[in-house]
Amino acid sequence: MSKNVFYIVDCNSYMHRNYHAIKSLRSSKGVPTNAVYGTTLFLLKLINEHQPRGIVVTFDVSRKTFRTELYEGYKAQRKSMEEDLLVQMPIIHNIIESLNIPIIQMENYEADDVIATLAVKLKEFSDEIYIATNDKDFFQLVDDKIKVVKFSGGEVKIFDREEVKKQLGVYPEQVPDFLGLSGDTSDNIPGIPKIGEKTARELLEQYGTLENILSNAEKISKPSIRQSVLENKESGILSKKLATIQMDVPIKFKYDELVLKTPDSEKVISIFSELELYSLIDMVKMKEKPRETHYQTIKSYDELKFIINELKDKDIIAIDTETTDLDPMRAEIVGISLCGEANKSFYIPIRYPSELGEFDIQLSSSEVIRELKGLLENEKVRKVGQNIKFDNKILRKFGINTQNYSFDTMIAAYLINPNRYNYNLKELALSYLNIKMTDISELIGSGKKQITMDIVPIKKVTDYACADADVTFQLAKLLKEKLEENDLFDLFQNVEMPLIEVLSDMEDAGIKIDVDYFGNLSIEIKALLKELSTQIYNEAGCEFNISSPKQLQDVLFNRLNLKPMRKTKTGYSTDVAVLEELANQHRLPALILEYRSFEKLKNTYIDALPQLINPETHKLHTSFNQTITSTGRLSSSEPNLQNIPVKGEWGLKIRKGFIPSDSYHKFLSADYSQIELRILAHSSKDKYLTEAFEKDQDIHIQTASKIFNVPQDKVTREMRDQAKTINFGVLYGMSAHRLSNEFKITRSRAQAFIDDYFKIFSGVKEYIDGIIKFVRENGFVKTLLGRKRFIPEINSSNKMTQAAGERMAINSPIQGTAADLIKIAMVNIHRKMKDGNFKSKLILQVHDELIFDAHIDEIDSLRKMAVKELKDALTLDVPIKVDTKIGNNWGECK
Questions:
Q1: CA distances in angstroms from 869 to 603, 635, 865, 866, listed in the order given
Q2: pLDDT for 493-507, tens place per residue?
Q3: Whole-angstrom Cα distance, residue 360 to residue 261?
Q4: Are 354 and 421 in contact (CB under 8 A)?
Q5: Class for domain 5-169+252-258, per CATH?
Q6: Of 284, 291, 239, nearest to 265 (Cα)?
Q7: Within 614-716, where are the H helices?
Q8: CB 34 within 8 A of CB 798
């Protein structure tokens, strides 16, 4: 493409399109960002991928123009701008200005006329001018220099003279005539009645212009068209005037002002960070202020001793490790970086390429361990890190038990904003420090060509690793201030930070599974699947690939002629909800659901878990994550041991495959009883809810008794089950629609159930109303310990989104408090086990339950201590109850 190319952007066009195309994108503070994101992404791609000489952006600024004076109906059908789009307008303007892209607009003139005038004037200075728009009106401007360009998804379509003819059937100079005849519903241009686009093309083909058509109206062969043209000449002339874009708007500009300039990267990144549009930051051509950094590779024992002496007197040092793998159980250490002051870091290489280039490394790993032990195990020096659980485990393998880890930047950022997409150091550096860091892929590559860090040249690793430690050091101070500003530091210091060591020990301990048992389960479930497939083929009347949605669609809707429920891009849906509905018409959908269920158990658990056993420890080692869920709950991954099925025959069978470490141990389970309902009772102060827990009554029987107005001894099992559904449904903001589906009753009856519940448990109703009101006014909820969750959805103009926000508002403080409660208990139990030199180990946490690999000599004392710490973790107005079970496998603990 020629270098002297200018783009004129019809920003209204892209802004509206992105607003409607991108759904429900908001910052954690509730600011809608869908139009901002889409429009900015488009502009950044335009800059980066097309590299024009200049870009100009235009907007409509008023509805009143010469066209509305000519015709009151012009664009009269258009609705006012939606509120969520209106609030994004100034943000989009601010971003465009920060990108140093000029905005040209004028009162009483449409953006179309401003664009046309700019295009014509820029012809003097440019080789090519591209008008970026989705509006076909601009086709009339196309000539040898001016083109219309349409960006849609990943495609770019350029309209020159011939392409306009191909698209509309007329040449650019005929577009106003074409619209004058056929009209334009988007702008409410009337045109001439009975003349559509096809007839307009035919008439222009014959007569060339609207004026010629009107002059020769008597010659038009088709009577109805001839009559309409004769009767509506004025409408045609008016419509052409409305459709003709003006090229003489009195705008003034200097050519140099339109030439593309370097963005104000600091300002634009600040805006992106505030709106949490982190993916856009990387696209900004940053004019970075060079940072003066001192990053040093430690090459000798003398240098190592020198930096250790320098760092041992620091109050705080940041630590970061480089490794060969992201799995700490399999990773080998490559090097360690340390930072004791901003912009000054040291990298100590341990594994490195044999070709050293300029470096002559004279360090042995034993020397590194000896010197670092003294520093990192010194309790007087506080240590900070990013995801320090990983670094801590790596250093343990290296023989160093780091003491006084006081700050984790990843966890701090999570507490400050638990709705963030991720908390990696690269994004935090951009968000909080405006520092753009090197991506790891630039060092080790990606995909099949990816290498390990120990092969990367030392100079590159030094710069990368030192930056990690340096940025972490700088972030720690800033994030500590933000935690204190948000009253979150106590939660961070007393719950989340001590929990890191607990989780590290749990992960290291791992959990054993019986491989032979799982092998037998696999054989059993394989036979079951084979039997089910035979039944499916019999019902279908043919054999087909059961796992293929396309083939299943054919069987259900063509072969069996079942009624399709919902269409997708690839045909008709065969998801769970659809199959459940279709099961009322035929037996096959129910069999498919059963088959899918067993297939998932086989693939996800029975066959997969034995493959994940660590070859050295012969155990499964999950990773417990503190920064994944918005409510504060821990999550488990690789493998997810919190998601092991709990219900049904096969859930029990799978859990029976989890076994203690040896014959001297058993599993001890300690499980909070109905903890979320107890927290609700405490928070709501509801009379009946509180009374039930104080008297240790069955809460579901008590609720059933109240709702159905029968004595407790007359409550049937069905009544209790329905009351249980309502009790827990209240915690999740269950709607009458969902309850009606659960109970298989009418929606009005379901609503009556909910209304009756809230009449009786009026304290709960008042509490829920109060929570929703608080969130609407403040934008967040808090747990009893002050953990915050932002819920911008609650103020959405979209009713479904708003309802989802209300459900989150009701549930989050309850579920979040339960999460805080068990975390406190875990920290205290872990400390007691360590102080008491227990041989038993805490190995698993599944929401409200703890699993211990308990030594048979310690079971009684461990159970007693664990129950006490779980009960004492937090004082509630109602008693906290803990159930315990002992078993030879996990299945026996349920």
A1: 38, 22, 6, 5
A2: 999 999 999 999 999
A3: 45
A4: no
A5: alpha beta
A6: 284
A7: 648-655, 675-684, 687-694, 699-708
A8: no
Give me the phi and psi of 841, to 5 degrees please. -135, 140
CATH for the 294-478 domain, from 3.40.50.300, 3.40.50.720, 3.30.565.10, 3.30.420.10: 3.30.420.10
> How do residues 199-252 score in pLDDT, each as one tens digit?
889 899 889 998 898 988 888 888 888 888 898 888 889 888 888 888 888 888
Question: Is-contact 148 139, C-beta < 8 A?
Answer: yes
Place of tokens 């360009």: 149
Determine the pLDDT at residue 821: 97
Q: Looking at this protein, which amino acid is placed at residue 500?
A: I
Q: Which pLDDT belongs to residue 287?
A: 53
Query: Per-residue pLDDT tens for 682-716?
Result: 999 999 999 999 999 888 998 888 888 899 989 89
In sequence order, the β-bridge partners of residue 841 are 853
Token representation of residue 208: 């060339």
**The pLDDT of residue 878:** 96
- What is the C-alpha to C-alpha distance for residues 559 and 567, in angstroms, rounded to an integer? 18
What phi and psi values does residue 789 have, to the nearest 5 degrees? -135, 125
pLDDT: which is higher, 253 or 142? 142
What are the residue ranges of CATH 1.20.1060.10 in the chain? 512-618
Distance of CA 880 to the CA centre of its chain: 35
Annotate 292-326 with three-state secondary structure.
CCEEEECCCHHHHHHHHHHHCCCCEEEEEEEECCC
Structural tokens at position 507:
């992960």
Average pLDDT, the chain: 90
Strand partners, 341: 344
For residue 289, is pLDDT > 70? Answer: no
Domain 512-618 has CATH 1.20.1060.10: yes
Tokens (6 digits) for 798: 């979209």
Surface-to-core class of residue 17, CB atoms within 10 Å of its CB (0-12 exposed, 13-18 middle, 19+ buried): middle
pTM (2 d.p.): 0.80
Separation CA 453–CA 461 (nearest Å): 8
Edge-to-edge strands of the sheet including 405-408?
A: 294-297, 344-349, 333-341, 316-323, 382-385, 405-408
Domain(s) of CATH 3.40.50.1010: residues in the chain: 5-169+252-258
Assign domain 627-686+761-894 to its CATH architecture: 2-Layer Sandwich (3.30)
In terms of Cβ atoms closer than 10 Å to its own Cβ (0-12, 13-18, 19+), residue 771 is buried
Nearest to 820, CA basis, from 754, 875, 894, 778? 875
